[in-house]
Structure formats: structure tokens, C-alpha cells
Description:
Layout: H1 18-35, E1 56-61, H2 65-76, E2 82-86, E3 104-108, H3 123-131, H4 133-138, E4 141-143, H5 144-157, E5 162-164, E6 168-175, E7 178-183, E8 190-197, E9 205-207, E10 221-223, E11 237-241, H6 245-256, E12 261-265, H7 283-288, H8 294-307, H9 313-320, E13 325-328, E14 333-339, E15 342-347, E16 352-355, E17 357-360, E18 364-366, H10 384-387, H11 397-400, E19 425-427, H12 433-436, H13 446-464, H14 466-475, H15 491-497
Parallel strand pairs: 1-2, 1-8, 2-5, 8-19, 10-17, 11-12, 11-17, 12-13
Antiparallel strand pairs: 3-4, 6-7, 7-8, 9-18, 14-15, 15-16
Amino acid sequence: MKLMSSPIPAPVPLHPDARRRLAALEARLxxxxxxxxxxxxxxxxxxxxxxxxxxxxxxVVGGGMCGLVAAFALKRAGIANIxxxxxxxxxxxxxxxxxxxxxxxxxPKQLLGPAYGMPSLTFQAWYRATHGSSAWEQLFRIPRxxxxxxxxxxxxxxxxxxxxxxxxxxVGPAADGxxxxxxxxxxxxxxxxxxxxxxxREGLGKPTIPAxxxxxxxxxxxxxxxDIDFEALKGRRVVVIGVGASAxxxxxxxxxxxAAEVRLLARRAVMPTINKLMGVGSYGLVAxxxxxxxxxxxxxxxxxxxxxxxxxxxxxxxVGRFPNAFFHFDAGIARASVEEGSVRLETTKGRVFETDFVxxxxxxxxDATARPELEPHTAAVAAWRDRYTPPPEEANEDLAxxxxxxxxxxxxxxxxxxxxxxxxxxxxxYGATMSLGKVSGDIPAISEGAAxxxxxxxxxxxxxxxxxxxxxxxxxxxxxxxxxxxxxxxAPARAEAV
Length: 498
């Protein structure tokens, strides 16, 4: 199967007056925020650790898109005592400049993303300022590197205090109402009342690695999220497993690096062509999905998953323009081995492919039990399999592994009383999809998800501190009236009676 080619989008030059225009946008954003009384006063009473240590009210793990909008939403709600931690270097948060290899984002360019209701914080506003309105009108979709540039600006203009190079290795209870985050390479944990896991697509799971790789040396294959040396694939044969977005993006990258041939092998008999969830995409789906019964949520996600979301057209054409790219269907892999220096892949239909290197475009498996951050408590996390049993014809182990979350994105216990502190950890990543929908990983509804998350955290913090707030209520004595604003008409009569 061959596809017609399409040109690689050329880089768009900056507007000649980009610096002044961006400064004007930032001034407009500052005014917008000031009109919304930003920054609001912090209302959360301070908390000390068991030995008097400082305790953050919220620690956000992850400084990519999800972590940034979550932090902004918390600040806008008057929750100021927060920290944002990211294990990557500054400017490399999230997948955009690491293992994401698409030319452009899938999402339409006009989506609001992490703007959180601020027109002057949208990608469109930033792009028009830096590249011009004419360039915006001509833009098809957002180039991946430009999206990262926008997120860097977003972080800077909002003064979000991301701490880079900080790797959270464990999260667990430290004292009553306080969590400890163990940091790799540090003996001093970070204490927090609430933790938000905003750590991306793989943040609550692991790469999906097919069993056939057991027959291959590790240096002969890589997962699409790995740091792949594509230059080393020049002149070599490559097989990519899958035809989804990550598979075609990695295939295109290998071809552009000069691979001798690239073959994409799919288990499916035909190429998926319809993004089914777009058929019901609306604010109704965003708001209504969490309110549906478990039966309906399961039915929708199971159907959409089995249909499979196709790779974007422009990404697929990026592969199809190469004459040495080949798509093969009904080609699930039964076994793999290395023979006479070549990787030998035998399909379930008996066909054999020989190659030099295999790239797995097989995505991620969501499974809280696979996350080292929650060890040794992972067995206490409730999953969908613990709360819901689908009809036999809709059985799906991938969906069953998703965590069963509360409406504030917090984990729930498999057995009551086993690990109550899990309710203080919020899963603001792709792992929330089954419980709450696509509001904590994908661009379209990320601001809506951040608002839900913040509302839940604010409510929990106020509830936990209600005794302090009650005492503040009783002690409050600032007079609104000082006594000279009115005249008591009956005062003279009472004075005469005395």
C-alpha cells in the first residue's frame, strides 16, 4: 500500500516586530489578570511537618502542559503554597522535544488548550504576536517545536516556579494528613498535603512491550518513547510495529534519517481511518462523561479503543511520500529471533520479514501497579476491575487496569482503611481517562480538567482546615461600621427612662 506524498511544512519566520508585539501581548495579559484580581490572597492556613519542617499545600509532579495549567489554576484559586517538580531539564518538560516525533500536533490550531479562559494566554494570541496574523491564517496545524516554545513562554509569563532536575521516586504517608515525596539523590523528602501527578501519557503506566521481544537482544529494538539514535539507522532496514500515530511518526523519522527501507506491520486487516470519538466531541461529552454510569463509560471507551484512533493524515502522508516505505496489514508478530545477523519476524499468518532494527509503536499500558512512585502501596489502589465487571463481549484488560478515581482525580482504596492517604494523591494524567474522560492529557479540554482538579483540592483543603477557619470566623472583629453611619431614633427615649 502506497500513499501520495505531501510537502514538509517550512519553518515560519518571526514577525519583524515580534519582540514589541509579544511585549504588548504580555502587557495585555497582565492587565487581564489584574482585572481578575490576580494574584488572589492565599487563604490556606500554613502547615508544619512532624519536626516543624515546611509543608507545601500542593506539590505538582510534572512541569509539562498538564502540570503548568494545574499550577496556574491552583494559584488563581488562592492556593499559593505550591511547588512544581520536573525531572527533565528546563525547556524539555513533556514529550514535545524528547520522544514526540510528529511534525505537527493532531489538535486543530484554534483549540484553547491550557489558556484557562484567558484569550491573551492562548496559542493563537502568542502565535499572532510572534509570527503575525497572516501567518496564523496560513497555518495548517501547530508545528511540534512551536508548541514547546509556546509552553516555555506560558511558564515564563505566568511566573510558574518549576523546579527542574528533580525526580520524585516515591510518594507515601509521612504523618497524619501529610505526604512525603522522596527525591532521587536526596536524603531530604519534600512534604506536602496534596500531590498532583501531572506526569504525562506514561505517568501512570509503562510502555507496552509485546512478548515477542523476548527473542531479541535489547540493542535490536526500541520503544517509540526511547531515545533512538536515528542517524545510526541510515542505510539499514527498519520494521515499525503498528500504524498508529507514534508508529508512523517514528517510521517517518527513520526514513528522513536515511533508512534503506521501513516496513510498518499492523495486526489489523485494514488501516483504521475514522477517529470515532470526534463523532461525539463536544462540551457535552467533556461535562457529561464523568456523570455517566460505569456501563456507559466502559462502552464508549471500549468501542473507541477497539476501532483505534488513526494516525493524522499529514503524519501518514509524511511516510507515504517515500518509495521505500511499505505498509503491511494482518501482520501480527508470532515470534522473533536473530538469524545470520538479521532480525527475523514471523507473523501469525506465517509470513517472514527480515530487518535490522525494530521500533515498537505500541503505545502505553495504564497500570498503577507498575509505577515505582506508589510502591509499596500499589496493591491498595483501586482499579476499574475492582469496581466494575463488563459484559463478557466487552471484556478489555487494558481498560480494567485504569485506576478508579474520585471526581477530584484522587485515587481510591481497593479496600476501605487500607491506605486512606491515597485520597490526597490526584491523578491528573492520561490515567484519569476511564473515570473522568479526556480532560487531563489531551489539549482540547485540559483547562476544564484543571478547573475540576482545583475545585476538588480547594474543597478538601478547606474541609481539612475547617476547625481553623471556624476559629478565624469567631475571632474576626474588623468592624464594617464604626458607629457614626446611623442615628438610633429611640435613643433619647431610652436615656430619659433611665
